[in-house]
Amino acid sequence: MNITMQKKITVFGWLLLVLVCSFSCRQTELSNDPNHKPYVVVLSMDGFRWDYPEKVKTPNLDHIEQIGVRAKASIPCFPSKTFPNHYSIATGLYPENHGLVFNRFYAPDLDKFYSISNRESVSDSSFYFGEPIWVTAEKQGIKSASYFWVGSEALHDNVLPTYNYAYNGSVPFEQRLNGVIEWLQLPEDDRPHLIMWYIQEPDGVGHYAGPNHPETYQMIEYLDSLVGVFQHKIAELDISNQINVIFTSDHGMSEIAKDRTIYLENYIKKEWIEYIDGANPVYSIEAKDEYYDTLYSSLSNIKNVHVWKKENVPERLHFSESQRIKDFLVVADSSWSVLVSSRKKAYSGGAHGYDNINKDMHAIFYAYGPAFRKAYSHKAINNIDLYPLICEILDLEPAKVDGKLEHTLPLLIKKNKN
Ligand code: AMP
Ligand code: ZN
Ligand code: ZN
Question: Is 10 a catalytic residue?
């Protein structure tokens, strides 16, 4: 190699170095500049089963898969019910650790009952453990907003999202969507960088009509069109290239039938029971001391139902550590119903709450935005792994949680560490 050639290579090397340096400095400047700080918007559509997009035309979700990421599924925590799972997404904790073990339960630690339909209990902070993501954000100077996310009506460490609403299921979905867009149009100093919002469908129609019914499919198509409208409105914002959007859900739905219904009262007596928490198809039952053995042996004789003593619940379910979990866990086999009394009529349609190993319980996960890879498909993730993912995108120091960033990190574009 002659000297001129060597010089040329050295000059080229220097030029490359300067270019790389200025690019990474620019990246660092951008992430520190308030005008380029990232946003995360999470929408949960309740009961949106992982495979609905395979059954129904969902062009807008398909488009997100092209411009962003799709995980095969988001696996719920057990029990695959609404409140336990929305709060697991928010806190990164298993229900045994965040305290919302069912939608309805007796809390012996407080000597109080919790119910999703009781406003007083829903906004009572003593039921909730862990640190929801909006509290992590607010404590670290990031404004947050919740449009009906479970748990956001209760104070945690005296903190609420900067913006939130008391739950009202009759607020039209379009109104919620526009409310979220309005938050993103606030002046920078007032604008939330974390927004969590919620839609109670297709859970409602999934229960009533079943997961394989045309009415449910129609709802999926409508929700997909809302996804499209939302994405379009986001794209029109000045800050659109800073916004990361996640579309997910709390659980799926399984087809049930009237003739696959079990009535507990045909096997056990009311007098044996101290407390019974839960709802079809999953219950947690506290025995009166003297009937502990009788209750267990009677429950064990029921066909198409699985019964575990609290201390024998399989590790993978992460459902034994809380005082709020009672003596026996009763879970119907897939597509079976368990009702307490025959005064409650058997019904067909859909149910959830089953073992989370059951694929029918798995939910969707799609995301796009500057932090996410493009046209990337990933294996199923656990919903508790969302909390660390959001912390990573927003540069927040996470609280100690059960979820692990390493499970969801592959969804993100590698950060420049300079
Ligand atoms: P489930 O199917 O029983 O697990 O729960 C779904 C129901 O939870 C939906 O019908 C919603 O109306 C209700 N829900 C969701 N979020 C809230 C909330 N923040 N407060 C009260 N109810 C809620
Ligand atoms: Zn739900
Ligand atoms: Zn439901």
Answer: no
